[in-house]
Amino acid sequence: MTTRPNVNELLEAGFGMGGERLAVLDLVDTELLVPDPSIDLLEPAGQRDKWWALQASRVPEGPVPDAAATRRVRSAAREVLDAHLTGRRPQATAIEDLNAASSSAPQSVRLSADGQFEVRYHPEYGGNAKLASIARETIELLADAEQLALLRRCANPECSMLFLAEHKRRQWCVGSICGNRTRVARHYEKTRKQS
C-alpha cells in the first residue's frame, strides 16, 4: 500500500500544500498560479529532488526526472484538469504530452501473489517511470467520471490548488490554512463595513 505525504511534511519541505490522494495533484500544486509572475516550488533543483523523495511511495523507483520534463508533464496535467473544471476542451498539445509521457516507459499490468493489481514500469527500455506514472494517473483520473466529479479548485481566490473533495462540502485545499484565511478576510470585510 502506498502512503502519501501529509500536509505538514510538505509544508516543512517548502511546498505550499499537498498530501492529496493523487500524486498528480500534488505535482500540479507545485506551481502557484495566483501570484504574478507564478511561483515554481520545484526550483531550485534541490526542491525538485525533495518533492520526488516525498512522493517515493507513490511513484516507481528510478532517477528523478529532469526539470524540463517535469514542468512539461505538470503543465499538461494542469491544462487538462483546468479544462475539465472550466468546461472547455484541453489544448491538443497537453493531451499529446500526457500520452507521450505515459507511453515513454513501457508498463505491464501484473497480479501480485496476494491477488492485488499492480502496474510495473520498465524504464530499462527507455523513458522515465516517475513521469509515466504521473501521466497515467492523470489519464486514469480523467477517465473515471466518479472520481473526476470530486475534482475542485480551492475556493480561496488567492490560491490555485487543485484537490479531490472527499466530501461534497469541501471548498478549500486545506481548511486550516485557506479556509481560515478566507473566513478571516470575510470577517474583516464585514466588520470594516459595519464601522
Question: Which fold name is given in CATH as the topology?
Answer: Jann2411-like fold
The total tally of domains equals 1
Strand count:
6
The CATH class, by name, is Mainly Alpha
> First CA to last CA: what distance?
55 Å
Uncertain runs are: none
Sheet/helix structural class: mainly alpha
What is the general shape? globular
Q: What is the chain-wise order of helices and strands?
A: HHEEHHHEEHHEEH
**Into which percentage range does the β-strand content fall?**
5-15%
Classify the helix fraction into a percent range. Answer: 40-55%
Annotate the secondary structure layout.
Elements: H1 7-12, H2 23-28, E1 31-32, E2 39-40, H3 45-54, H4 67-86, H5 92-104, E3 107-111, E4 117-121, H6 129-143, H7 145-148, E5 151-153, E6 162-164, H8 175-194
Antiparallel strand pairs: 1-2, 3-4, 5-6
Helix pairs in contact: 4-5, 4-6, 5-6
